[in-house]
Every structure is written in structure tokens, then in C-alpha cells.
Task: structure prediction
Amino acid sequence: MFAESADTWLRLEDDGDVTVAKLISQAIMDERVIRVIGQELYRQVEQLGRDQIVIDFSDVRHFSSSLLAVLIELSKKIKATKGRLVLCGLQPELLEVFAVTRLDGTLKIVVDMYEAMRQFAAKRR
Result:
């Protein structure tokens, strides 16, 4: 049975004004799952005003290209509020997907959570 809850696939934590969204599945392939993840991430920006977001991919090994569309839309929503989106923890195979699609030039991608949080700390100064 499919759980229509984002917390099955996504763990959210606030670290000051930064929302950390950790994807907690090795494979994010199902369109319904991607839709639920997207809805929760959009809600963070649109309804809760959380526009400083890190998405941690460290557990993810595979994902559908539909997730890229979610990330692009999320990036647009965040940029409209002058916020910031940072992706981290991408495995080399997944980094290749971002390179091939040229999204590595559009989306901010860093190695790990430590570096992601440094990006936000640097912006505050």
C-alpha cells in the first residue's frame, strides 16, 4: 500500500533559518512518491516561508528524471523569494545526471552537508 505521507521519503529539520530536507530512500523512481516529495518541498516555500533549503541526497542511489523537474520548479520558487537551494551528498553517478542535463550549472551542488551549511553561513556575513 502506498503511503501518501512525505515523511516516508523525506525527513525535514530546521537548522536556524535553513531547512534541511534529507531524502531517505535509495531509489526515488515512483511518480507518486516524487509528487508527494515535491508537494512537501513546495509547501515549505509557499506556505511556511522556508526559502533557505538544503536537500541531502546521501542515501539516494537512483532517481527518476521526474525528480529533476521537481528540483527545477523548487529552484524557481526559491529564487522568486530571493532564497537559496543547495543540493549535497550526490553519488558520482547522480552527479553525472546533473552534468549531462547541465543542471550542475543551474543548481548549486556541493559535496556534503558540512559544505552546504557553509554556503548559508557565508551568505549571512
The chain is about 40% helix and 25% strand.
